[in-house]
Amino acid sequence: MLTGEASAPEGLRLYAVGDTHGHLTLARALFGKIEADLARNPPPRHRIVMLGDYCDRGPETRGLIDFLIEQGNHHDMVYLLGNHDQRMLEFPDMADETGEAFLHFGGRETLASYGIDADAATSLRAAGKAFGRALPSSHRRFLEDALLCHEEGDYFFCHAGVKPGIALEAQQPADLLWIRHEFLQHQGDFGKVVVHGHTPWDRVDIQPNRINVDTGAYDTGILSCVVLEGRDIRVLQTDGPGG
Ligand SMILES: [Mn+2]
Fold first, then answer.
1. The pTM is what?
2. Could you tell me the distance, in angstroms and rounded to a whole number, from the CA of residue 89 to the centre of ligand 1?
3. Which CATH code is given to the segment(s) 12-237?
4. Centroid of ligand 1 to alpha carbon of 8 (angstroms)
């Protein structure tokens, strides 16, 4: 199934939001646009699919996760797990080498948002334990409950992508969370149109076999979502710096 032929379920408008990476202000701005879109032209039903990577890099992981949990009171939400989110959940018990990598790729900012100074800790292990104590149980549950993938009509949602040549229902967690080039370079039909984030692009990238919604919000200030309704595909995004 390819873009243009693919259809969302009858009567359901889907909003799929790209990587938020600790940027609460951008998430608030994008949800404002989604709510304006809903008010302007209300569908019978709508669902918001978050494509993962809520933590790291940006300054407000803690506030962003609170905000996302709260959105469940207003919208039908689906939360997918990103590779960064998985590392965040594992950090309290992580081996030193993986822990260093987590801190290097934005984890320092995540810890800071929970009041932990990674550089002041006596060891990586101590930082992990302190973080484990600081992480609210609601946030731990939010990350533990996040899904690896989700399907709606002819669309398949996951954080990073899928491994070509393997059926969608047989995809492995490591590929759904981490895959890049092999997936991005594949030209063939995956069976459903894959809607994903993970690899920042200069625009929402609508290809015949996949849609990349990650516009590198932590770097560009542009957080995007793709709106899928019937066979229509639209894009909503924040205005970016100065907007
Ligand atoms: Mn990612």
1. 0.97
2. 14
3. 3.60.21.10
4. 25
